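Next up, a chain.

===
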Amino acid sequence: MNEWYINLNLPLLYQIAIQGVSFFLFFTIVKTMFYAKVKGIMEEREKQITSGLDSADEATKKAEQIERECKAKMESLEEERIQMLKEASDASEALKAKIIADAQKQAAEIVENAKKDIKVQQERAEKEFVGSMIDLTIEAAEKIVGKSLNKEDHMNLISESINQFKEV
């Protein structure tokens, strides 16, 4: 036969009852003495974890804010760099234009001075030529006339020679 039944005898029932009462007393003692402390520890640990998570969230938000500020500053610096390059380019173009204008002005002055020098040289050459012509005319006149000319005759011959020279 199969022996699966429970034999409920009196000592066994006493033992079960004593163990039940002992367990109930033990549970009650543990609950009254340690439950509040364990619950306090658990609540404190929960607060620490919650605080840690809140701090982590706050730190993450702060890091994201700093990242946004850094990106904004980088964009601002990039715009400033582009503006500075543009200003430098504009300044170099203005300097280039000024240098070219100054060079053209100097070239124009050099050309003008050269023209003046040429005119002065031309006038000097004309005077020398006229002087030479006068001397040659006087010599030729003296040879033709065979005598020295007075001052008045000199002047007449000179005037005629100059007029003829200008016509040529």
User: Anything to note?
Assistant: The mean pLDDT is 84.
